[in-house]
Each structure stands twice: as C-alpha cells, then as structure tokens.
Specification:
Elements lengths: L1 H13 L7 E2 L38 E5 L15 E2 L1 E5 L12 E7 L11 E2 L6 E2 L3 E6 L4 E7 L3 E7 L6 E6 L5 E6 L4 E6 L12 E7 L5 E6 L2 E4 L3 E4 L2 E7 L7 E9 L3 H8 L7 H16 L2 E4 L1 E2 H14 L4 E2 L1 E3 L5 E4 L6 E3 L3 E2 L1 E2 H4 L3 H8 L1 H18 L5 E2 L12 H10 L7 H12 L13 H7 L11 H21 L4 H10 L7 E2 L4 E2 L26 H4 L7 H7 L3 H13 L14 H7 L26 H15 L15 H11 L1 E2 L7 E4 L6 E5 L5 E5 L9 E7 L2 E3 L3 E3 H5 L2 E8 L22
Parallel strand pairs: 34-38
Antiparallel strand pairs: 1-21, 2-4, 3-6, 4-5, 5-11, 7-8, 8-9, 9-10, 10-19, 11-18, 12-13, 12-17, 13-14, 14-19, 15-16, 15-18, 20-33, 22-26, 23-24, 24-25, 27-28, 29-30, 31-32, 32-37, 33-34, 35-36, 35-38
Length: 763
C-alpha cells in the first residue's frame, strides 16, 4: 500500500504544469507515463482519441475502463462520470472501433447486469492509471477495482465493502455471444463474436475467467432477462453474473482472465501466463517489462512536462499493431487467420493503418525495436499468403478505409534498413501484385490502378474518390518498390517501371497555383478548384496539405515550384495564411478541420498525418533554421502530458512517433531511404540504446527554451554541415554534439551538398 500511495502522490505531482523545472536525471521511465494523455476527446474534436490502455508492449490483449456504451468507439473519455465495466480491447482508434471484446464489472446490493444500471460514478481523484496497473474506486458499489496484465491474460482484484450481495458481471457483448458457468470450478467461459470491420470469417474471441472464491449463486443473462441458476446461454447478447458468500469490508476477490482467437482450450493455455503469481508479482513483472522497453530511450535536461510527454508518447508507440499470435500446447507459434478463419502456424499482428504509420511509426520500430518489426514482417508474409494481398488497414483483417498502397513502404523500409532472416522474396511478390492490381475492396491493392498505370495518375472525373491523394501515395510507394528491387538485385527491366512511376507526382502539379490538383481523364485539371477544399481529390486534408507528399523527390517538387526561394515561400505560406476551409465535400466540419482551425498555425494541420513531415522540408531548400523553429514550436504548443495533450488523432503511435523523433532531433521524411532529416533536439541529452548493443548519444548541453537553433553539429567529433544523418551511421553507434543558439545560423546547411536525399538528384 505504501508503494502505491507514493506512486499516486507522484502522479498527482506530475499533473501540474512544470515547464520551468529542469530534470537532469530521470528515474524509472514508466513513472513518467500518463496513460490518460489524449483521452479528453469526442467525435467532433480530438485531443488524441486515446484511452488508458493497460497491457504490455505489443501485447495481444489490452484492457481499459469503459465509460462508453457497448459498441461505442469512444470507450473511455476523460469527461465521463461513470464506468460501466472493465473491457478487454484491441481498438486501434475510435473510428475503427473494436474487436475481440468482453468486460467484467463488480457490483453490490443487487444482481444488476444491464450496462446502464450497473454503471457507477467515479472520480479521477481516486483513479490510478499506469501502463501496467489500473485502479479506481466505484462509488455506487463501494468497490475498488484493480487490474494488471500479461500479454494474453489479466488479473483483477476487487476489494468489497461489508456485504451479503457481492457480484461480478461478465458481459460477452452483442452480435452473437456465448456463456457457460462452471460453479464447482469457480469458472466462466464464453466467447464474443463482435467486430467492427470485416469480413472476418469464423471470428470468435474465446475467454475464460476463474475466481479464487466459490460462487454462492450464479445466473446467465441475455439482453435484459436474467436466468437464475442457469449455467449456459447462447444468444445475440449474453453474459453471466456470479455472487459470493457474505464478505467483510476489505475482503478481496481475485479474478484471472485470458482469451484466445483460436479456442477455449487455447484460452486456458493462455491463462497459464499468470501461473501461480500473486497480483503484486504480476504487477511488478509488468512494470519491469515497461521499464525495459521504455529504457531504450533515455532523455534528460528538459522540463518535467517535456519528460512526461516524451515517455507518454513512447508508451503509445509500442502498442500497435498488437500480437495476434498465440503459443499452443506444444510451444509452437500459431494464429487465427482473419482471412480464412483457420488456425495456422506463424506470426500475425493486427490493428494498424499504414496510411498513418508508414510515416514515422515503422521507421521508429526499425531504428529502436527492429526485432519486433521483424516479427511484424513475418506476420505480413502470412497476411499475403492467407489473404492474397497485404493489408493497408488491418482490423484485424482487411478494412476498407483510407487510401494508398503504403504496405510497400513498410515492407521496403524494413529490408532497406537492415532487417533480415525472413522471406523477403514472398513479400516482394506481394508488393508487385498489390502495385498492379485492384484488391477485394478499394483500400486493398490499388484502386484505379489501370488509370494510374496508363495515364500516370488516377483521374478526378472517373468516380474514384480522393484520386489525387491516391496518385501521390502510389508514386511514393513505387519509389519504395524500386528501392527494394534494387537492393534485391532485381533486373532493371523488371523494376525500371517503378522508378518511372515514382515521378507520376509531376502529372498533378498545377503551375498556376504551385500546388497539386486533381486532373481529369482527358488531361485537363479539375475545375473549379479551391486549394482550401478538404477531401474531394484529397484525403482528410486539402491541396495545401497534400502538395508536400512527394517524400521521394523533394528536389523535384522544388524545381516544379520554381526553385528554392519560391519553395520556401510556399512553405512559409502554410503558416501565415488564415485557417480558412471549404468543407462542402463532407457536408460539414469534420474534426480534422476543426483541429486545424483552432491551433492558430494557419493551414498547418498537425492533427492529421499528411502534412506532418512538411516542417522538415526547409532542409531541402537551404533554410534549415526554419525547420528548427517550427519543430520546437509544434512540440511545445501541440503536445502536453495531459488528457488534452494531442492536437488531433494520435493514430496508432504515428503522432507520438513524430514527437519522439523530433525530440531527438531528426525525422524520417523519406522512410524507404537510409536518411533522417535534421531538426533540433529538445533535450540537453538523449541516448538511444540500440538492439545491437551500440548507443547513440545526442548532447545539446546549452539547449534551452530560447536556444532552439542549431549553431553547429558534430558527428563523432567531426563537424558536419549536412541537413541529414544516416541510418547505418547511427547503427554503428554515434556521438552527436549539437551547439544550440538563440539565433539561427544562416550559413550552416545552405549548400546543395548538405541537402537530404531526393530521387531526381541521388539516382
């Protein structure tokens, strides 16, 4: 109790804003994480759209207190007053909703099971939220619930008042569920079939719950009807409620829980992850795992809020995609296939959208956690073998949402940055197939691929939505395929077409506006055209946001815009224009528009992904100090370790990964290359402990609130004027010394030789 009480005091202390206090040395990094960061959100305004996920890094199952109704994507929101259950979740975002779900809820006084009637008032003042532990006092029932987890199992500890009516409700959710109670074994099994995106054949999430106390009574329930002493029920929406013998105040009931996508038997095997460990032991093991994972990055010499923001973002980056594989009774790795419904050998991960995460999340994994991404690549091989295509949004199978063929970037980058030991040839076949075919739905393969291959763009007027966005992303994806093909030694006769198509971005450039614009099948530009119109030819953004999506060839874009001076002027314009918008395509203001509007950064819309790399593009035009200014501005203004701590959707670690890279002083503008574009470090010191045993030390001792510019930079003691840093140079271990200044150095990084990679320059 003393340890937990002290942790609560630390958490309360951290909740105050602490920009002035500089932290010279940190303790355990997990103590700086606020899982509630980003949870104060709603459909029309996102401050992160996160929930306090209790679990292990990339764990198969996460758990969260549930304030929303069953099926509500906003399953936990900070401004809610009541908790209606503690839910197993795999939800990557509220817009994608959930799969593999069920919940537990303690109640007292009466056998209440309806999700509205069992909801209890609670206060954040009695809530303790950590990555590996959650606790809250449920006022209506005078019960404290505690929760801690392993990869595939969880342990609850319910502390009851003096009562002769103590219960736990198990809710298997709607859309088809099953429950069976084994009173003599103090056990409940069941399954839920609910999922939000599909199709997902033969989908069931099997679960098992065991208690350390005998059942004094039990009932199954279906929808609104309770069936007393009935031990089995299958219907659209069923659950169980079990009662215990009279308890004294402070008596505890332990519930052990596990689930499986494969079978009841496998759920029982997964339950063995808990072993005979006590609650405290499971909690400590979880804490140790988190400390080990988070300790790959060490930062100091920043404010307390900056330290907390950094580790809270790191916590978010190591959740998705989640493991979907399990260990069977023979100790073999197996998985349920969301593509054919079978149980098959090998790895599987699920719950991420590459449209978001190809930009920074996967580059972050490749640098800091490459062995985890190797497993993910092996999972992608199984995705392709079982589904016939690679997923672009897995939730847990193919989800028909968003645009692009960005699995090409995720696959290519991993190999190009050194990952080995998996079947890259099968993945190569997958990339070639996906790049040249439409898939079973518009978000898989390439929608409009025949137009794109024949014309060099997806036309505006042929009934394919967000066509300009598709074209720009396909062009970058073609670059990624070309780079991988070269690395694999594929003949130019096979891969040259992808190098050619990587230049297709030029087909949409409208010189009269110096921006990208939708183009009709006959070669004319769309008309009328407003660069402030969201959607339409673009995806969740406008032309000012998407025109920079030439990750592979920024120099080519500079040339199209009339040279460096004009290019920098266009970049500057993003920040100085008013946040005007045209929402006619959507028929109303979507939350991404509102988030841009209220940030007072002009047309810069950091709350969504398409423009997040744009700040770094000054480095390609000889004015890197503007990148340094705007990166620091965005970090300080748009990120805080608070419930409203993000400026839009966090999106599966992507928006967090932007912060992590930026705080270290560099960013992967072109993921499928071996370069990171420089910004300016946020902390006086940052260390990356690489998997290969090497370290990257980034020292900026005179960094401060005012010293935001890079005056000079040394790599291993050697002065560098480059505006980029190499991936493989980092992997060798590196000391980066940065001299920070309050005034920009307008002579550093200004020559063409200093500029980062562009395809039209660096063949």
């Amino acid at each position: 109790m003393k340890k937990r009480y002290l942790s609560f005091l630390v958490l309360a202390f951290f909740s105050s804003r602490s920009f002035g206090q500089i932290v010279d040395k940190i303790g355990d990094p997990v103590d700086y994480v606020n899982p509630l960061m980003g949870s104060d959100s709603k459909p029309d305004l996102s401050n992160g759209n996160t929930y306090p996920a209790v679990g292990l890094p990339w764990g198969m199952n996460l758990w969260t207190p549930q304030t929303g109704r069953n099926g509500d994507g906003w399953q936990y929101v900070y401004n809610a007053d009541k908790i209606r259950g503690f839910k197993q979740t795999h939800q990557p975002s509220p817009w994608m909703n959930d799969y593999g779900i069920f919940s537990l809820m303690p109640v007292t006084g009466a056998a209440i099971f309806d999700q509205n009637k069992r909801a209890s008032w609670y206060s954040h003042k009695t809530e303790i939220s950590k990555p590996y532990y959650y606790s809250v006092y449920l006022a209506d029932f005078d019960v404290t619930t505690e929760l801690t987890t392993t990869d595939r199992a969880a342990m609850f500890r319910f502390t009851y008042p003096k009562t002769d009516s103590a219960f736990v409700v198990v809710d298997a959710f709607a859309k088809g569920s099953y429950i069976k109670i084994y009173p003599s074994q103090h056990k409940i099994i069941g399954y839920s079939t609910q999922y939000a995106r599909g199709p997902v054949p033969n989908f069931k999430n099997y679960f098992v719950v065991t208690f350390d106390k005998a059942f004094a009574n039990y009932s199954a329930w279906g929808d609104t009807t309770i069936f007393r002493s009935v031990d089995e029920l299958k219907d659209k929406h069923v659950g169980a409620i079990v009662g215990f013998a009279p308890l004294e105040r402070g008596d505890k009931v332990i519930a052990k829980v596990a689930s499986s996508y494969i079978s009841e038997e496998q759920a029982e095997i997964n339950l063995k992850e808990l072993g005979n460990d006590s609650f405290e032991t499971i909690e400590k093991k979880g804490r140790d795992v988190w400390n080990k994972t988070l300790s790959r990055l060490e930062v100091s010499g920043g404010s307390l809020d900056q330290i907390r923001t950094f580790y809270s973002c790191l916590y978010r980056t190591v959740f998705f995609p989640t493991k979907m594989y399990e260990i069977d009774k023979k100790g073999q790795i197996v998985h349920y296939s969301p593509y054919n419904g079978k149980t098959l050998p090998g790895y599987m991960y699920a719950g991420t959208g590459f449209w978001d995460t190809f930009r920074a999340l996967y580059p972050f994994l490749n640098l800091v956690y490459p062995s985890v991404n190797k497993e993910m690549q092996e999972g992608l091989i199984n995705d392709f073998k079982e589904g016939g295509f690679l997923p672009e949004w897995s939730s847990p199978g193919f989800a028909d949402i968003m645009v692009g063929n960005n699995s090409a970037s995720v696959v290519s980058e991993a190999y190009l940055k050194g990952l080995r030991g998996y079947d890259i040839e099968t993945l190569w076949k997958a990339l070639v197939k996906d790049a040249n075919n439409e898939g079973p739905m518009s978000a898989v393969g390439r929608k409009g691929v025949k137009y794109y291959n024949d014309l060099g763009y997806v036309p505006y007027n042929v009934g394919i939505n967000e066509n300009a966005a598709r074209t720009l992303e396909y062009a970058y994806d073609d670059y990624a395929i070309y780079r991988l093909g070269k690395a694999l030694g594929k003949p130019e006769s096979e891969i040259g077409i992808y190098a050619k198509r990587a230049m297709n971005y030029k087909n949409l450039f409208d010189k009269s506006h110096n921006l990208m614009r939708g183009k009709n099948e006959d070669g004319s530009f769309q008309a009328p055209f407003s660069p402030f119109k969201w959607g339409d030819a673009f995806t969740e953004g406008n032309s000012w946001h998407y025109s920079w999506s030439v990750f592979q060839d920024i120099q080519g874009l500079i040339d199209l815009m009339g040279g460096k001076k004009s290019f920098v002027g266009m970049l500057d314009s993003v920040f100085v224009m008013p946040p005007v918008f045209d929402d006619s395509y959507y028929g109303g203001v979507i939350h991404e528009i509102r988030e841009m509007q209220i940030m007072n950064m002009g047309q810069y819309a950091h709350g969504n992904q398409p423009i997040q790399h744009m700040i770094y593009l000054y480095n390609y035009a000889g004015e890197p100090w503007k990148t340094q200014y705007w990166v620091r501005n965005a970090m300080n203004k748009l990120y805080h370790p608070t419930p409203d701590g993000y400026c839009g959707d966090e999106d599966n670690g992507q928006t967090s990964a932007w912060y992590l890279f930026s705080a270290m002083g560099f960013y992967p503008v072109t993921p499928a290359s071996d370069q990171y574009v420089l910004g300016a470090p946020l902390f006086k010191k940052a260390t990356i402990h690489l998997e290969n045993g090497k370290t990257v030390n980034i020292a900026a001792p005179n960094n401060s609130k005012t010293n935001i510019y890079v005056n000079s930079l040394k790599e291993n003691g050697k002065l560098s004027t480059k505006n980029w840093i190499g991936h493989f140079d980092l992997l060798k271990g590196m000391d980066v010394q940065v001299d920070m200044s309050a005034q920009p150095n307008k002579t550093r990084g200004v020559n063409n030789a200093d500029f980062p990679y562009s395809m039209s320059v660096n063949k």
